Amino acid sequence: MIAKTLPEQEEHLFTVLSGRRFLDMEGLSGDVPFFIYPYPPEDALEVAAAKKRVKNRLAGAGVTVFEINLYDLSIELLKARGVWDRLLAIEPKKDKADFREALQGMLDPEQRIAPAIRDRLAAQQFDIFFLTGIGEVFPFIRSHNVLNNLQSVVKGKPMLMFFPGRYEQSDTLGSSLVLFGRLKDDQYYRAKNILEQEG
């Protein structure tokens, strides 16, 4: 039975994430250890608070979580390249499509985001990797592109992506990430819905 209310989901998350089966990545049948926690976008603040509580409870149980927020990482990368202030200055005047294209180039998942995440993961000791900030970086960074490029980066530890929307799984149509419950991001079939995992 899938937990319906946010408090039930929070409890489910803690139970699954603290379990040996999850931490040892058992039952994946060779699949990547990627999990998605889909939630209604309107619950973002409550989910952020629940995530913090779950991280604290996991720490108390001896399970270390390392979190990367894609929005914060993007700003960090743009500042490191020395373009942040210039982008802020030109954004109000620039055509939206041109601006989006420019940012997509600067924040390319294969060339920029995945290597930056790999470097940060290599410098940390952790049991679970949380990926957040998905909604904040849309449409400059698409979640399915990030997931595809992280397959060779996140190894040996499970990853949980907090996704503001739906993760629709169908035997006939495949699986799709539907951002904000409206925008079909694209098909991504390799992740598992964390709410469907047994604790």
How would you name the oligomeric state of the polypeptide chains in this document?
single chain
Number of strands: 7
Q: Encode the helix/strand succession as letters.
A: HHEHEHHHHEHHEEEE
Query: What share of the residues does DSSP label as strand, in percent?
Result: 15-25%
Net shape: globular
Radius of gyration: 17 Å
Mean pLDDT: 85
How many angstroms does the end-to-end distance come to? 12 Å
Q: Counting H and I runs of at least 4 residues, what is the number of helices?
A: 9
**Low-pLDDT sequence parts:** none
Task: Summarize the structure in words.
The protein is an alpha/beta fold and 199 residues long. It contains 9 helices and 7 strands. The protein has helices at residues 6-17, 20-23, 44-60, 70-80, 84-90, 96-106, 109-122, 134-137, 143-150, and strands spanning 34-39, 65-69, 128-132, 159-170, 174-179, 183-187, 192-193. Strands 1, 2, 3, 4, 5, 6 and 7 form a 7-stranded mixed β-sheet that branches. Helix 7 (109-122) packs across helix 9 (143-150). The radius of gyration is 17 Å and the shape is globular.
